[in-house]
Amino acid sequence: MLSIITRSLLSFFISFGILLCFGNKFIKYLSEKQHGGQPIRDDGPQSHIQTKKGTPTMGGILIILSVLSSSLLFCNLSNIFILLLLLVLLGFSFVGFLDDYKKVSKKDYHGISAKLRILLQIVIASINCYIAYKYMNYNSNLYFPFCKDLFINLGYLFIPWAVFVIIGSSNAVNLTDGLDGLAIGPIIITSISLLIISYLNIEQRELCVLLSALAGAGLGFLWFNTYPAKVFMGDTGSLAIGAVLGFIAVILKQEFTYAIIGGIFVIETLSDIIQVLYYKKTKKRFFRMAPLHHHFELRSSDAPNDYINTLISNQDGLKESTIVVRFWIISFIFAIIGLIQFLY
Predict the structure, then answer these.
(1) Host H or E run for residue 9
(2) Every domain of the chain and the residues it spans
(3) Statement: residue 307 has pLDDT above 70
């Protein structure tokens, strides 16, 4: 068998190549089938109604197919964790597909109900986490950042904890996917960071091949998703990719390190939670709009009258491309901090 480095490089370039070769044709196919693209939220920034109207969604299908193809070609399929990761990838992409399909077919941005989506995610994650737990020889240690010798044994609580990490990661990436190229940049950075950690973990080096496929597919998708986007990832891609990244963190036992590396995903999620809780208590908005990227996007004149927070000095809003690149920079910094913590 080829070395892990060779297989990882091949996996990366095959995934990247699939996106570049079939991207335009697939986008054209989606445009013809969807007749108007992804419905735009009427409660989001008003500028999106014009600038993003008609853009096809479900581009994540091509990401999933490219990752799956490269993994089947170059991964050691006798590795149970690779098989479980592919099952999670397919399972969560199916949930996302149901959501996207309802949005497009019904011309309604709501998609399937949140309860049904979470229920399906819990079922898929629970089955795979239980199997993974058995093949980890019931190793349920939870390690803390910056403290190599500090850990707690969760016992069977490891399974609900792992399910929480996977579902949280899945929905965090989904929340971040709100501007052209915003989510896919941190996805690439996070994938490469976890790849480095996987390579340094001799027992889990096989994960490098799958992570390389994900990084290559992400880079290829960015070719078409950068501003102005020709296609959106959709829930089909974001839910699946987020779940896979979270599951890899669980397998590597680097959940908190992943939270640092994927800090952008955490911040975006927290901004949404803060907005909801603050509004329920005060009937006022903490941010101009949540998740956080919309806060920076809105002009002060677009902000609600009850806006009381002055988190940024720029009152004229920021260009979408500016927000995206700055979030990429912050994501890169988080990745460096996370890797330094891992090596500490």
Answers:
(1) helix 4-34
(2) 4-261
(3) no
